[in-house]
Design goal:
This protein is α/β, with parallel strands linked by helices and about 230 residues long. It has seven helices and 14 strands.
């Protein structure tokens, strides 16, 4: 089975509710007319408004939508629910908190199993960076390095690269301080991985870009990646 992750620097239904290009791309990877999509709102603390927005963006004509709450009691077994999906979609919010809760409930192991089975994993912001070994995150307040991501993808990641003034310089500082090099994505840009290899960068906005960012001989080397506009 092809292992696939689509990591959105920003965009998707929660940030661009009238621009469906990135979410349509994700659904298209499944090859199904009405894919089964499960929303993991853990980073937002299972925000009820976020969950409502998800269902509004994935109506029955578009997908078979469900969600997995972890802050309230739920019926059934999470593993059964997650492994019965075509897409698992992680929302934005607090990455560090989500990782802690997932590990407490064993969801981290189920997500790896889902990935290895070919279920498309995706997400925005926290849902982008959680898949990597490390990241630039605001989970602790000021932007800081997080070094204990799920590690499905090697290296580090940074979302909202063009949208928040401190993201680019702080990410560069983290790389100089020892965070592994990796990928950055603007709002509206996403990284499509097959296995651990980047297949392509895509975007829902004509000028949104993705980057490879590394420390080479003590200097930051930032390489703009070819980014395919989906419009």
């Amino acid at each position: 089975m092809t292992k696939r992750i689509v990591a959105l620097g920003g965009g998707g239904f929660s940030m661009e509710p009238r621009n469906t290009l990135l979410d349509d791309f994700i659904l298209g990877l499944t090859g199904r007319d009405r894919p089964r999509v499960c929303f993991l709102p853990t980073p937002s603390g299972d925000s009820s408004q976020y969950i409502t927005n998800f269902y509004g963006s994935f109506p029955p004509a578009r997908a078979v939508a469900t969600h997995l709450p972890l802050f309230t009691r739920r019926p059934g077994e999470p593993r059964d629910l997650l492994l019965d999906q075509d897409v698992i979609y992680v929302g934005g919010g607090n990455t560090a908190n989500a990782l802690l809760v997932w590990r407490l409930h064993g969801i981290d192991k189920v997500l790896r199993e889902a990935w290895e089975r070919g279920i498309v994993l995706c997400g925005v912001s926290a849902g982008m960076i959680c898949w990597f070994e490390g990241s630039c995150t605001d989970s602790f307040g000021p932007l800081a390095a997080l070094r204990d991501g799920l590690g499905f993808l090697p290296g580090s990641a940074c979302p909202h690269y063009d949208a928040e003034i401190d993201r680019r310089p702080r990410y560069h500082e983290m790389l100089r301080a020892g965070l592994a090099g990796g990928h950055a994505a603007d709002d509206g840009a996403a990284l499509h991985f097959e296995g651990t290899t980047l297949r392509e960068a895509i975007s829902s906005r004509p000028n949104a870009k993705a980057y490879r960012v590394e420390l080479v001989d003590g200097k930051i080397v930032e390489r703009e990646l070819p980014t395919r506009f989906l419009g």
